Amino acid sequence: MGTGGLDIRELECFLTLSEELHFGRAAERLFVSQSRVSQLLRSLEGRIGARLLERTSRRVRLTPLGERFLADVRPAYASLHGALESARDAARGVEGVLRIGFQGAADERVMAAVAAFRARHPGCELETVEIPWADPFGAVRGGEVDAAIVLLPVAEPDLVLGPVFPRQPLTLAVPARHPLARRVAAVGVVDAEELADHPVIEPGEPAPRYWRDVVAPAATPGGRPVPRGPRVCTLQEGLAATAAGRGTMLLCAPTAALHSRRDIAFVPVEGLPDSALGLVWRRAGETARVRAFGRAVAELAW
């Protein structure tokens, strides 16, 4: 299959190599031999007239031209691939079981996406699965769920970040009798700089450090260090620690609204970036069901 003399198999080979940077792993993913991978790459480089990858006995890496070509071709290939898969989905329908993970609480935004998917694909059974607060990506990688709705950011090379939900303001969970709770009753909001005076509960490992630093920032916007509170595995553990006075906890406003309780106050915070949820799935585990759910999320009028 080609377009304008260009063989799509050559592009698939190049894109796979650019992700793996290893001829053996690329061959496994493409279900061909390593020699076939080398042949396809040489053919593509021959069409272009220059090297796209440098290969030594120790490493494989993109050349500067290869990096530029990758940036240009990846969106075009994704668009072509998406159009083909959409046509296939429409032709055969979406059936089977789809397992979607979520963190903390399946709020009305998550359930709206679930309802839209179920209405469009009644032949597919959709199951929602709670995943640990401290392990946003493990269930996806382990195949326990097909995709997951997780708090951003996501910077995992083996995962695809799909549609993103609308951004939401952050609130700070504090014990009901905390000084901030009493003061907010009068002024309505606290400044993010005040996080420096109160330990913030954080998710433990295996959540990556960059992700934990968003949930529990190491410093205020002004650079003041934020004391670390206890590490917890689940959202419920964090709320219990908050109620016991062991620390405070940053949550998006919809999650806070779903966990209203008398021993915790949820205080609006001013000065921090809004939070957002996004749908992620494994690059190697993309299915028609996952793509269909992604479209249901992307097409919702929030």
UniProtKB/TrEMBL annotation:
Which InterPro entries does the record cross-reference, listed alphabetically?
Answer: LysR_HTH_N, LysR_subst-bd, WH-like_DNA-bd_sf, WH_DNA-bd_sf
Boundaries of every HTH lysR-type domain copy = 6-63
Give start-end ranges for the coiled-coil region(s).
Answer: none
The answer on whether this UniProt entry bears the keyword Transcription regulation reads yes
| Superkingdom in the source lineage | Bacteria
A UniProt-annotated Pfam family: HTH_1
Which key words tag this protein in UniProt?
DNA-binding, Transcription, Transcription regulation
What is stated as this protein's family in its record? Belongs to the LysR transcriptional regulatory family.
Its recorded name reads LysR family transcriptional regulator
